[in-house]
Amino acid sequence: MGGAARLAVVAMLVGFTAGCVEHPGLPAKTNGAYEQKSKLTADAAGSAVGTVVLVLDAEALDNTTAVYRDETISDAEDDLAATVGSFSSIQPPTDRSAALRDDVMDVLDEATSEVAEVRIALRLGHRRQALDQRQSLERIGSKLEELSGP
């Protein structure tokens, strides 16, 4: 088999096997699969929230610059939005999974709102207001940790 033919076969196999990989937005076929996706989502969202808490800690100690602070919070907010978008597109397979989806989405919505409020407050120069939201973010982080399970 010549080089071009071999390359064509490899390309065809790669294309065929790529269709076998389950996309995270596709429906989960079982409660267990959906629960696993919800745990991974809560873990990823918790990481984004934790990043914002760390930035607020640095801000409280005057140990960061506005540029670094703003970029880091924006990146965390973007990561959180991507996580929410990916999870919200997954079809729950049962009523039990739909109830879990509601629980997870409620906390994700809370996280999204709080992170946005911190970003907005800091960029408007309302440092105290942003720092006061740290406790809420920690509470949300704890909820996400509970949802991500052991």
Describe this structure in words.
- By secondary structure, the chain is mainly alpha-helical.
- It has one domain: Four Helix Bundle (Hemerythrin (Met), subunit A).
- It has helices at residues 3-18, 31-60, 66-88, 95-123, 127-132, 134-148.
- The chain starts with a helix and ends with a helix.
Q: Which terms would index this structure?
A:
150 residues, mainly alpha, Four Helix Bundle (Hemerythrin (Met), subunit A), elongated, disordered N terminus
Question: What is the topology?
Answer:
Layout: H1 3-18, H2 31-60, H3 66-88, H4 95-123, H5 127-132, H6 134-148
Short recap of the structure:
The chain is mainly α and 150 residues long.
DSSP E strands, number: 0
Count of DSSP-assigned helices = 6
The number of distinct structural domains comes to 1
N to C succession of SSEs? HHHHHH
The assembly state of the depicted protein chains is single chain
Coarse morphology: elongated
Question: What is the class in the CATH system?
Answer: Mainly Alpha
The biggest beta sheet reads: none
Structural class: mainly alpha
The CATH topology, please? Four Helix Bundle (Hemerythrin (Met), subunit A)
Radius of gyration: 20 Å
Helix-residue proportion: over 70%
Under the CATH scheme, the architecture is Up-down Bundle
pLDDT under 50 segments (min length 5)?
3-23
Strand content: under 5%
Write down the overall mean pLDDT.
86
Distance between the termini: 51 Å
